[in-house]
């Protein structure tokens, strides 16, 4: 299996169990028939957030407050804490979330970690204002001129194609 393959919870729990028995990543990957990188990610989550989070992977996405995000990022950037340590301390389930926050923080600062409003912004889309009769007619003329130009171009292309076909046939 490659890419973003989803594995069942039993496989993830078995990987954690094998880890607790002293097995390494390569050994676990070989035994379970999955990529070593996948095992590495699972074990990072298991060590940092616990068995519950490992079991819940893929079920739901946790929402973290601005303060939690900021504290975790500052712990890594300013205090030199490792990512797995920060994940464990702040209860962050996904390493990709922490990576995304770190990138945003480094590029745009703390404000980049604030929650973004969902959905379409209010007032989007221009309100239709009443057009005068003259404006309506001008709009209609422009539309008809564009349509006319399109049809002329289409007729010219068809005629050119016909003439090429005739020339080929006569040759």
Automatic annotation (TrEMBL):
Listed InterPro entries: Homeodomain-like_sf (IPR009057), InsJ-like_HTH (IPR055247), IS150/IS1296_orfA-like (IPR052057), Trp_repressor/repl_initiator (IPR010921), WH-like_DNA-bd_sf (IPR036388)
From the UniProt entry, list the residue stretches annotated as the region Disordered.
108-138
GO MF term list: sequence-specific DNA binding
Family assignment from sequence similarity: Belongs to the IS150/IS1296 orfA family.
Q: What is this protein called?
A: Helix-turn-helix domain-containing protein
State the Gene3D superfamilies in the record.
Winged helix-like DNA-binding domain superfamily/Winged helix DNA-binding domain (1.10.10.10)
> Any idea where the Insertion element IS150 protein InsJ-like helix-turn-helix domain is?
12-54, 69-122
Which organism is this protein's natural source?
Ellagibacter isourolithinifaciens
